[in-house]
Amino acid sequence: MSELLRIGGLFALTAVAEIVGCYLPWLVLRQGKSAWLLLPAALSLALFAWLLTLHPSAAGRTYAAYGGMYIAVALLWLHWVDGLSLSRWDLLGAGLSLAGMAVIALQPDAA
Q1: pTM of structure
Q2: Domain ranges in the chain?
Q3: What is the residue-level pLDDT of the chain in tens, covering all 111 positions?
Q4: Which of 7, 27, 53, 58 is most buried when burial is the number of CB atoms within 10 A of its CB?
Q5: Among candidates 18, 7, 1, 4, which has minimal Cα distance to 70?
Q6: In this structure, are residues 17 and 48 in contact, taking their beta carbons and an 8 Å threshold?
Q7: Cα gap 99→69, rounded to integer Å
Q8: Radius of gyration, alpha carbons of the chain
Q9: Could you give the count of Cα atoms lying within 13 Å of 64 in the half-sphere of its Cβ?
């Protein structure tokens, strides 16, 4: 269980870094915010890439497992940042994606 929490926490942090790195340019391009936001966006995307390297599994397996956490974090972003309510379908989808993440990330001899 502690391994799942460690992996899940690292994936959650990775997802936030990716979302911030993509959200800031969206603000610049879609809402006319300052182009200076592109600097922290680039740093956030660099952090995202670095965080992905901290996993011991092969890159493809890491990306596949990460995708499940990304879905869940993106839905939380939808709720907390965009202010939209999550539906039961959002919650079901997030649960299924997190289950998939756990299956991939915790398989025996996944290194």
Answers
A1: 0.87
A2: 2-105
A3: 688 888 889 999 999 999 999 999 999 999 999 999 999 999 999 999 999 889 877 888 888 889 999 999 999 999 999 999 999 999 999 999 999 999 998 888 755
A4: 7
A5: 18
A6: yes
A7: 9
A8: 15
A9: 13
Only one residue has tokens 């269980």, namely 1
- Alpha carbons 75 and 24: distance in angstroms, whole number: 17
Give Cβ neighbours of residue 66 (< 8 Å, ≥ 6 apart). Answer: 11, 14, 15, 52, 101
Instruction: Report d(CA 48, CA 42) in Å as an integer.
Output: 10
DSSP characters for 51-104?
A: HHTT-SS-HHHHHHHHHHHHHHHHHHHHHHTS-PPPPHHHHHHHHHHHHHHHHH
Residue (of 48, 40, 59, 58) closest to 10 by Cα position: 48
